[in-house]
Amino acid sequence: MRIFVKQTGALLIVCAALLTTGPVFAQAPALDTLSLRGAETLLLQKNRELQAARRAVDGAAADVITAGARPNPSLSISSTNISRHMGSGTLLNKPIDTVIGISQLFERGNKAELRTETARGIEGAVQKDRDDIERTLRLALHGAYYDLAQAQEKVRMTAENAALFQKSIDALNIRLKAGDVAAVDVSRMNVDALRAQNDARAARGDLEKAQVALAYLIGAEKDAARIAVTDPLPQPDGMPPRADDAALQAAIDARPDVQAARARLAAAGKARELARSLRTRDITAGVQYERFPTNDPRGSVGFSVSVPLFLRYQYDGEIRRADSDALAAEDAVERVSALARTELRKAAADLAASGERVRRSNEVLLGAAQKAAQGAEFAYTRGAIGVMDVLDARRQLSATRLEALAVHTDYAKALSAWNAAMGTSPQVATPAVAPTAASSSAAASTSAAASSPAAPATSPPAGGRVAQ
């Protein structure tokens, strides 16, 4: 029986330990396959700016406790008439005048309640500041995430371009030995191959910088080199989002920075009332016991009341400062609201423009550049054009692909900025998407380009439909 009880108790202890330490065993998002939602989870857990904002909220909550505290009473003890010639006898019988008193300040004018309400208003503003910091950090996180996605895709594209240029050089060297091409054509191809290698190295440098930027936001600086993102860049889906004046005003009213400004305005109003209440005189009351054996061995009891006399100063400075702070808080509400409206308008314009650029890139530019490159490769294999024309077509195609990637990244950032400005949850692109027309044509031309004098393979930037 004792063994059973001990085993049961040990099992209960282990279960309790597992329950209390359960979150410790929760698996953190993997950095080498980091999704956008996983990055947001790490942001909320490890971001230093967000942690500092939480500490500020704790400090504001402590200020509320301080503001609501009532004054403590004061105890005083004083003894006089002490000398060497006090005669014989016990200490209680010596002619020492001893006074013991207790005094208490009684606040009037509702000062304690006004202090508490002011502190609570500031606490609410600090909480909204934390929410706004989280909003802006999410926006920064999305930008860093999409920058890393762009850098990864750019590394892949430039590495592929450099490899295919090398294949072209190998093919041209074989043709050079056979006398089919001139040596100057091989030299020109070598120049472009070296440029492609430089582009690939620069892309790797951009990748490292993007990893460092994202790592700081999620508190993973030591493992920055391991970070690899998996979510594709979002694609425009339908018409760009629009909001009428009522929806814009509702979004402005719901923004944490606007709410923080309004909370500070309410706190400034209470602080103004508190400053004016300083002209209401507080009362200090006290009681005391005095014992002087030579007069009355039993001692005597007395009381005192004191009030301030506003003869020279009546808190005009505090009242004027509180009025100024209240007016400044009103100005801050108007300023923050105007900035929010401007941010919304700008985000809407950026989103519409970037969405149109992405659609034009997908539907026109990539296909046109691909067709031009294919035509140049075909004409070169038939001897209709020279190698310089082929290289020009390849440069144009490579520049178009990189431009399309940058346009996709700009759209992803614009979408995140719009969501942040509207105070809505960001839309995360889904990995499984149907290929666009441009990507289908690019994929079909890859195998044909590899068999020619190494035209770089073309494919549009990774992208996905926006999850609605």
Structure, explained:
This protein has 468 residues and is an alpha+beta fold. The chain has one domain (29-70, 111-275, 344-465): Outer membrane efflux proteins (OEP), CATH 1.20.1600. It has helices spanning 2-20, 36-46, 48-67, 111-178, 183-217, 245-254, 256-277, 316-381, 387-422, 437-451, and strands spanning 74-80, 97-106, 233-235, 283-292, 296-306, 463-465. The strands form two sheets. The chain has a four-stranded antiparallel β-sheet, with no helix packed on it. It has a two-stranded parallel sheet with strand order 3-6. The chain is elongated. The two termini are 61 Å apart.
What's this entry about, in short?
With 468 residues, this protein is an alpha+beta fold. The protein has helices at residues 2-20, 36-46, 48-67, 111-178, 183-217, 245-254, 256-277, 316-381, 387-422, 437-451, and strands at 74-80, 97-106, 233-235, 283-292, 296-306, 463-465. It has a single domain (29-70, 111-275, 344-465), classed as Outer membrane efflux proteins (OEP), CATH 1.20.1600.10.
